[in-house]
């Protein structure tokens, strides 16, 4: 015990992606129930009133809206493994935060509503998984309710995401008349039993095919015919293709009643890769047994009003992390004492003493640490930067009460650092009226809320007409400043950004001025 590579082999670090309402919160709770991380009442994390107070919610704004804006980490044991479940925000809108969380995951579980298939948010998140070549498991949820025909649904999924779907379990009974699932690996039938809101683990009655045929009649026969079709087209789980993000093993179930949750969690243990040697910025791998290293994928201030502090979430990549050790902060080269290292579980936190590759450590009050930074012990390493995404929404922020300008400035700088929004400044106007840029408009709501409630600086946001951003250089910036329908602004790190009123206008200016340097930002179009 305690050897990093051995400990890493027991880790499974993954995220759940889904469209709102597909059942991510419910499934997360059920995972915790099966992992023994919740008391017997899974329902207790989800308020009876119908409003989720899930473990991972933290801010009043989230509660008002009933969404989970920030992502946190849930760690629990399952079988002989340690599962790290990274919670991605589940709101209708999306933000860079989600993408960063996926940078710290080794796989993702895609949750689909059986009646809806792949919805827009899922598709966007899926595109990020594809870019990162993250292996993907698919959970087709809510089979207890009417929905698509199973084969038709597979077809739809394959068409939309261009990935081979390889069902591990197959439903007996159409959506809404759920009898259970056949496990294609051994042909055995697991009967579906309703449990009241799934407060306890679902009873699993395993039935052999002969008896299942006698009990379920036509539904069994239909399922067998469909399975035969799947066998014929070779839709079998292939671990290599799964690891190469070319196929996705699929499971049918009903998170609300816990049905199918165990098989899915078993698949997380059996199929999701354990953390491996991570490539650094120059393509070399940092071996698991090398001295400690990690990278920060998320920074968040004031997670809990009673703490009022700032946490940098770091994924351990190699070695053993021990609280108290002094590591080096790659960007500044300064020593960093890890006296205040925590494990963050929802809004709770406890001191963590050691962590291994795949684990997430919350570093408290790590003021100089930014998203994307690497921290290491003994031998230096630099992990690749986490891409920042092309903003598509731009609004001007002004403080309502000029007497609060100092607070406004501090708040804006903090939100910029955390990546809540990107802050773009006009060289002439400085901090008076910065432009806030976001990937999704919800980021603005969070920024406005936090400026007012945390920093005491109520602001007014006015939307602008800009729709597209490009990175540019100084000579091009000088040329662009004289053109109509363009604005050139600067990020805190000095990057010059040109904003255009439309894609059309951008292309026209580019066509007329082929010498202009106008670089695309990461992932534009595909997930914007
Ligand atoms: P999300 O985090 O992806 O947004 O979804 P969430 O788990 O909150 O689930 C959305 C709704 O779907 C909830 O109902 C939840 O109970 C329901 N649900 C989740 N899984 C299943 C399932 O397997 N079968 C059925 N029939 N329903 C499911 P709600 O009415 O919005 O909330 P609540 O009153 O039940 O708390």
Automatic annotation (TrEMBL):
Q: Which UniProt keywords apply?
A: Cytoplasm, GTP-binding, Nucleotide-binding, Protein biosynthesis
Q: Name one Pfam family in it.
A: GTP_EFTU
InterPro entries attached to this UniProt entry:
EF-G-like_DII, EFG_III/V, G_TR_CS, P-loop_NTPase, PrfC, RF3_C, RF3_dom_3_sf, RF3_GTP-bd
GO molecular function terms noted in the UniProt entry: GTP binding; GTPase activity; translation release factor activity, codon nonspecific
GO CC: one term? Answer: cytosol
Name its cellular compartments. Cytoplasm
Q: Which SUPFAM superfamilies match?
A: EF-G C-terminal domain-like, P-loop containing nucleoside triphosphate hydrolases, Translation proteins
| Residue ranges of every copy of the Tr-type G domain listed in the record | 9-276
Q: Identify the main location.
A: cytoplasm
Please give the family membership noted in the entry. Belongs to the TRAFAC class translation factor GTPase superfamily. Classic translation factor GTPase family. PrfC subfamily.
Protein name (Swiss-Prot/TrEMBL)? Unannotated protein
Protein's organism: freshwater metagenome
